[in-house]
């Protein structure tokens, strides 16, 4: 089972801290999970130029291929200027419209203000849905005071991230079972 997390910004640390906590939790609870983190601070993605994802080379091509091959996708992103970062939107633009078909996707979102708590619902969820993702119903929203000096200081955030992992795998396991049953009907 392949799980890919995308850290949707090239700068800032709070989303990175939350995603790393989550991926460590996944490794702890699911030994069958092969986890990978794609971090925009480590890979320089070009602007989307209309090429197919498989036409990209180097580390960008490898990252896009990993996303396409994943069973589950975790989007960890900050909210900037009441919107998703351009780097994350650019990634979505580099992938085909059905990139997330048969995948489960969930969101971990950080923001400087509680006033931005609906941005994931209004901007990120519709894109993931349009790209055919099966979405974890709840996302984790984290504000600046929850992570200080690259450490989660609010135990409720750890609880919610742990619960997110449970919900993510409940949906992923259920969905994969349904796919297997459907494929068995075709007797291939």
Summarize the structure.
The protein is an alpha/beta fold and 188 residues long. The chain has helices spanning 14-29, 58-69, 86-94, 119-130, 155-186, and strands at 2-7, 34-39, 72-78, 104-111, 134-135, 140-143, 147-148, 151-152.
What report would you give on this structure?
This is FMN reductase. The protein is an alpha/beta fold and 188 residues long. The protein has a single domain (2-186), classed as 3-Layer(aba) Sandwich (Rossmann fold). Helix content is 43%, strand content 20%. The protein has helices at residues 14-29, 58-69, 86-94, 119-130, 155-186, and strands at 2-7, 34-39, 72-78, 104-111, 134-135, 140-143, 147-148, 151-152. The strands form 2 sheets. Strands 1, 2, 3, 4, 5 and 6 form a 6-stranded parallel beta sheet that branches. A two-stranded antiparallel sheet has the order 7-8. α4 (119-130) links the parallel β4 and β5 (134-135). α1 packs across α5 (155-186). The two termini are 21 Å apart.
Unreliable stretches, pLDDT < 50, 5 or more residues?
none
The total tally of domains equals 1
The percent of residues in helical segments reads 40-55%
Summed over residues and divided by their number, the pLDDT gives a mean of: 96
CATH classification, class level: Alpha Beta
H/E element sequence: EHEHEHEHEEEEH
First CA to last CA: what distance? Answer: 21 Å
Q: What is the percentage of strand-forming residues?
A: 15-25%
Instruction: State the secondary-structure class.
Output: alpha/beta
Main β-sheet: number of strands, strand sense, barrel status? Answer: 6 strands, parallel
Would you tell me which CATH topology applies? Rossmann fold
Q: Number of helical runs?
A: 5
* Rg value: 16 Å
């Amino acid at each position: 089972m392949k799980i890919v997390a995308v850290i949707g910004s090239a700068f800032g640390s709070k989303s990175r801290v939350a995603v790393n906590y989550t991926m460590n939790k996944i490794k702890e609870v699911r030994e069958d999970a092969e986890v990978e983190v794609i971090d925009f601070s480590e890979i320089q993605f070009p602007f989307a130029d209309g090429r197919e994802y498989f036409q990209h080379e180097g580390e960008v091509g490898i990252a896009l291929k990993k996303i396409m091959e994943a069973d589950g996708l975790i989007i960890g992103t900050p909210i900037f200027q009441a919107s998703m970062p351009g780097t994350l939107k650019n990634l979505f633009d580099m992938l085909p419209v059905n990139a997330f078909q048969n995948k489960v996707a969930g969101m971990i979102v950080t923001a400087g203000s509680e006033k931005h708590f609906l941005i994931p619902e209004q901007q990120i969820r519709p894109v993931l849905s349009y790209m055919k993702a099966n979405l974890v119903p709840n996302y984790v929203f984290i504000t600046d005071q929850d992570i200080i000096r690259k450490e989660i200081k609010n135990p409720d955030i750890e609880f919610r991230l742990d619960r997110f992992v449970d919900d993510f795998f409940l949906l992923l396991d259920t969905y994969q079972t349904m796919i297997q049953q459907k494929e068995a009907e075709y007797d291939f």
